[in-house]
Design goal:
8 helices; about 75% helix; two-stranded antiparallel ribbon; mainly alpha
Length: about 260
């Protein structure tokens, strides 16, 4: 009986290590970390994924409460959370781009309380929905899960990991928040700027014209028309951002 208990505990310890990395990834990754995906679903998904890969490799039976075990816990949490954070930068770029477009259109006061992101402009929320559809259309959920599972072959549990190159890559990739926002919002912002200049010229030529009664509706209407015309290019830019995030995620795994 004692032999059976020891074997069960050892199996549990070996099952624990891949589950920690997968759970940390599901906690931070887009689509998997939203409030609609409850904690029970995440835990169940983490257990299922761990159970699928458990027979495919040899796992170390480290004591989680020892010094080596605690270091390994932090290492697995770091790797999983880092992989999810690299993907969340795309969502941050969309939020910044949506805020810039909303400010140019005069819709910066039209906000929604998102349970995941807080107080977000309506256009940013719309871009997030489009981004989720593009992500699922690309098969991003399958790609990221397969990359997480492959990470156990590239970054085996129990080996020393160089954290500095991963942190440097994350800081470098974080600049995509602003570059991606510029790529998405710049065409609309430039067009709305010329429209605003035209309204200023009209107001200067006809001082009796009330700019507040004409300018705000004109900017909102023009912004809606330009946004509908730009959705094709915005969709391609969102797709490019997701593909770049997958590449950076693979680069992070290959740095070790």
């Amino acid at each position: 009986m004692e032999l059976l208990v020891t074997e069960v505990v050892g199996r549990f310890y070996m099952f624990l290590w891949p589950m920690i990395r997968i759970s940390a990834f599901l906690l931070t990754a887009p689509f998997f970390s939203i409030r609609a995906v409850s904690v029970r679903i995440r835990v169940l998904l983490a257990v299922v994924l761990t159970w699928m890969i458990y027979p495919l490799s040899e796992w170390p039976a480290l004591e989680p409460f020892s010094a080596i075990g605690l270091r390994e816990v932090f290492a697995q949490v770091f790797i999983g959370a880092l992989m999810g954070l690299l993907l969340q930068i795309v969502n941050a770029a969309l939020i910044i781009g949506g805020q810039a477009i909303s400010a140019s259109m005069g819709l910066s006061m039209a906000n929604m309380v998102d349970p995941n992101l807080g107080n977000v402009p309506v256009l940013a929320q719309f871009l997030m929905i489009c981004s989720t559809l593009v992500f699922l259309g690309l098969g991003g959920h399958v790609i990221v899960i397969s990359m997480v599972l492959e990470s156990f072959q590239i970054l085996p549990i129990g080996e020393m990991i160089a954290f500095q190159p991963l942190i440097e890559l994350t800081i470098e990739w974080s600049s995509m928040m602003f570059l991606g926002a510029i790529l998405i919002a710049m065409p609309l912002m430039t067009s709305l700027l010329f429209i605003n200049i035209g309204l200023g010229v009209i107001t200067r030529a006809a001082p009796a014209l009330n700019i507040f009664a004409v300018g705000f509706p004109a900017m909102i209407l023009a912004g809606m028309v330009l946004l509908s015309l730009s959705m094709t290019s915005i969709g391609f830019r969102i797709q490019w951002l997701w593909q770049r995030s997958f590449d950076v995620m693979g680069q992070a795994l290959g740095m070790q």
